[in-house]
Amino acid sequence: AISIAYLVGLVGFWSNSSWDELSKLILIAAFSALLLVCFLFFKQKHCKRKLRNALQREDSQVNTPKKPRALFQPSNTCVRIMASPIEAKAAYHSLLDLLVCSTDKSSLHALINSLEFPNNTSENLSEDEDIAFFHALNNSINARTRHLLINFRNTSGIRELNSLIMETVRFTEYYPVLPSENDYPDNANVLHGLGLDNESELSNVLQNIILALNAVGLGVCFLPAPPDTIVIFLYRLIDEEKIDHLVCRTGLGLGSTH
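The structure corresponding to this sequence follows.
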């Protein structure tokens, strides 16, 4: 509408004005510049509105409830891959390289090299032998550092678990904002809210902690644990398929909190 009015006014002005041609050209150039400024102004306003709408859609997607991404939750079994001791040892080494932690891994690689692995290719080998081997390895690693395989009791407080996780990522590029113990009733532990969500065997506390880790690109893997104990490690979500495969190659199956 502005452009049409401008053209009509321009034709009338050119045919009826008594101004000399130079003055007419100067005035037309000034009006043309003004028209261009108006066009750019409205275009910028339209672009800002589109950007604002896009950001609002993105915010709504971010705020949409998500399921926590965690491997081998209590009842989720993995397919055990029969492997020779050499293959199982290689799987442990590769798995160690992918774990997120603030610990020097060189001494742990040496520890793995020093161990005698069970023969997973034996038909008589039970899953219990693989798990017993892992428990012994877990104890040896825990004697060196608590910030690789995170061990905690199912009665542990929220602050204790948060502290273990933050120490694990302390010297990494990750800084998750974990839920505070103040968000829960007094004396709530890590299993607070267990069973409230029938679709998950994770407590409300663990779900929220995992979601906070997922938000910065980290996942949680549950490993077989003794009674009343939970064992997890942290990994990058981009490595999830590799982690899944490697845990199966170690001979470990059910990740359990019992």
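Residues 55-65, 254-258 have pLDDT under 50 and may be disordered.
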